[in-house]
C-alpha cells in the first residue's frame, strides 16, 4: 500500500473512531479526551486505542483517559485492562507515560 493510500485509510479510521471529551464533544483543539471501551471486543478496543495513540500528536492531545471497565461481562476475568496496558507498554514511542486507577481507567499523557 502506498503512503498516500495508507494515510487516507488512517484518516477514515480516525473519522469512524472518534474519542470525546467528558461532555461527549470532540472539538479539534481539545487537549484531553476520553475513550470508553465498554462493549468492545479485545481486537476492536486495541485498534481504537492504537488509532488514537498514533493521532495524538496531530490532534495536539495532552491526556487520554481510557475507560476499560471491570470486566463484569467477560466470561472469566477482565480482558481489556491488561490488553490495553500491554499495548501501551509495546508502543511507548507515542506517549510520555501512563498510569491507572482502581476502577480500571488508564490515563495516558502525551
Please describe what this structure looks like.
The chain is an alpha+beta fold. It has a single domain (3-109), classed as Ribosomal Protein S8, Chain: A, domain 1, CATH 3.30.1370.110. The protein has helices at residues 3-16, 42-55, 80-90; strands at 32-36, 63-67, 97-100, 105-109. It has a four-stranded mixed β-sheet with strand order 1-2-4-3, with helices on one face. The longest helix is centred in the N-terminal third of the chain and has 14 residues, at 3-16. The chain is globular, with a radius of gyration of 14 Å. The mean pLDDT is 82.
SSE diagram, text form:
Layout: H1 3-16, E1 32-36, H2 42-55, E2 63-67, H3 80-90, E3 97-100, E4 105-109
Parallel strand pairs: 1-2
Antiparallel strand pairs: 2-4, 3-4
Shape: globular
Structural class: alpha+beta
CATH C-level name: Alpha Beta
Q: Report the major sheet.
A: 4 strands, mixed
Mean pLDDT: 82
- Got a strand count? 4
Encode the helix/strand succession as letters.
HEHEHEE
Strand content: 15-25%
Low-confidence stretches: none
CATH topology: Ribosomal Protein S8, Chain: A, domain 1
Rg calc: 14 Å
Structure keywords:
110 residues; Ribosomal Protein S8, Chain: A, domain 1; four-stranded mixed β-sheet; 3 helices; 4 strands; globular
At a glance:
The protein is of the alpha+beta class and 110 residues long. It has a single domain (3-109), classed as Ribosomal Protein S8, Chain: A, domain 1 (2-Layer Sandwich), CATH 3.30.1370. It has helices at residues 3-16, 42-55, 80-90; strands at 32-36, 63-67, 97-100, 105-109.
Amino acid at each position: 500500500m502506498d503512503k498516500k493510500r495508507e494515510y487516507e485509510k488512517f484518516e477514515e479510521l480516525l473519522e469512524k473512531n472518534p474519542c470525546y471529551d467528558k461532555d461527549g464533544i470532540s472539538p479539534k483543539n481539545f487537549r484531553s479526551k476520553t475513550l470508553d471501551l465498554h462493549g468492545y471486543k479485545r481486537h476492536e478496543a486495541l485498534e481504537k486505542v492504537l488509532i488514537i495513540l498514533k493521532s495524538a500528536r496531530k490532534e495536539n492531545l495532552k491526556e487520554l483517559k481510557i475507560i476499560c471497565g471491570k470486566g463484569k461481562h467477560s466470561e472469566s476475568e477482565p480482558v481489556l485492562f491488561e490488553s490495553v496496558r500491554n499495548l501501551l507498554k509495546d508502543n511507548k514511542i507515542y506517549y510520555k507515560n501512563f498510569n491507572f486507577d482502581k476502577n480500571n481507567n488508564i490515563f495516558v499523557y502525551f
